[in-house]
Amino acid sequence: MAGAASAVGPVLGGLLTDGPGWRWIFYVNLPVSVVAVWLTLRAVPESRGRAGRRVDWAGTVTFAAFAGGVTYGAVRAGSHGWGATGTLVSFAGAALALACFVVVEGRVADPLIDPRLFLKPAFSGVMAGAFAFNAAAFGVMAYTSIWLQTVLGMSPVRGGLVFLWLSLAAFVVAAAGGRLLHGVPARFTVGGGLLLIGAGQFCMAFLDAGSTSTALIPGLLLVGVGTGLVAPSVAGAALATVERERSGMASGAVNTFRQFGYALGLAFFGTVLTSRMADALPRDAAHALAGGGAGALRGTFPEHTLRAAFASGLNTAAVTAGAVAVVGGVLVLALLRTPGAVRTGVTKPAAPTLTEEKATQRN
């Protein structure tokens, strides 16, 4: 289903942008969500956990503050520099929020995520892989789309069709992999998939002022194959590294790390792109070009200069994304060294939760 969605998404986004307008990329989620909620309530059986479990509001707030501070700092660095006061304050606030989150999670009865899980190499490896996956595979795509439309002059629909190479490869590999790779340790599907994503990003790092969209095809295919391997495997790998009682915690954690990876990757790679373009253009012009302002800059700068600057920025961003994917893949291959646990699940007795330990101490 994820593969099918990734195949439909870019084209549907282009059709909506070309048709009723870009705001409809948000409106279209409403009917889809209504149907999803209805199907869930109608068809998904209820699960019952321990009674009296409380929502960890303090953990939720402190983690949101950490994620927001890091992302905002990365965005601000693109326009004001890494050493700017506002950038440093954002990162310092994020570090403080992270410290508070760790303290809170160690004290509350029902933590958002038990910090002790990260002492398991396999769990930490899966979280690193999930973060690297969304950051590396999708973090540069927004700027590639801007390059296709504002520099190469493609329509939103044509720009979306370019990414079909990635989407279709992911769809085919995900569908075939579910059947052919069943039982293969997640160490190899997730780790190997991340290495393929890294190779694909490196393949897209050879653009110049005369490049067209066809230069992206080999890299997009490799990223698509890697995505088709990682996407169906990473959630199952996370569940298999924890006890059954903590499966909800692991599921929430892996999705959070994926979304955080995408948000931070989008911000960080945009900063890398802008910083590289600033070598050939004034910083304000580089920032405007990265944001889709090529049309307004054409009266001030030669076309060749704008094309060369954007291509150079995309190359640097792609290399950075490729490095993130490779590091994530190596971590997964190194840390998921218990293939039985991440293939068939944990069979030993579940460790006591923080709540159960505290209850025992009180008794």
What do these coordinates show?
With 363 residues, the chain is mostly helical. It has 17 helices and no strands. Mean pLDDT is 86; it is low at 339-350.
Structure summarized in a few sentences:
By secondary structure, the chain is mostly helical. The protein has helices at residues 2-18, 24-27, 29-43, 57-80, 85-107, 121-138, 141-151, 156-162, 164-180, 186-203, 217-240, 247-277, 283-290, 294-297, 303-335, 339-344, 354-362. α9 crosses α11 (217-240).
Q: Based on helices, strands and strand pairing, what is the structural class?
A: mainly alpha
Estimated share of beta-strand residues: under 5%
Biggest β-sheet: count, sense, barrel? none
Helix coverage percent: over 70%
Q: Roughly what is the average pLDDT, rounded to an integer?
A: 86
Straight-line distance between termini? 48 Å
Calculate Rg over CA atoms. Answer: 22 Å
Number of helices: 17
| Series of secondary-structure elements, N-terminal to C-terminal | HHHHHHHHHHHHHHHHH
Quick one: overall form?
A: globular
Number of strands: 0
Unreliable stretches (pLDDT < 50, length at least 5) are 339-350
Features:
363 residues; mainly alpha; 17 helices; globular
Question: What is this structure's SSE topology?
Answer:
Elements (H helix, E strand, L loop, with lengths): L1 H17 L5 H4 L1 H15 L13 H24 L4 H23 L13 H18 L2 H11 L4 H7 L1 H17 L5 H18 L13 H24 L6 H31 L5 H8 L3 H4 L5 H33 L3 H6 L9 H9 L1
Helix pairs in contact: 1-8, 1-9, 4-5, 4-12, 6-10, 6-11, 6-12, 6-15, 7-15, 9-11, 10-11, 10-15, 11-12, 12-13, 12-15
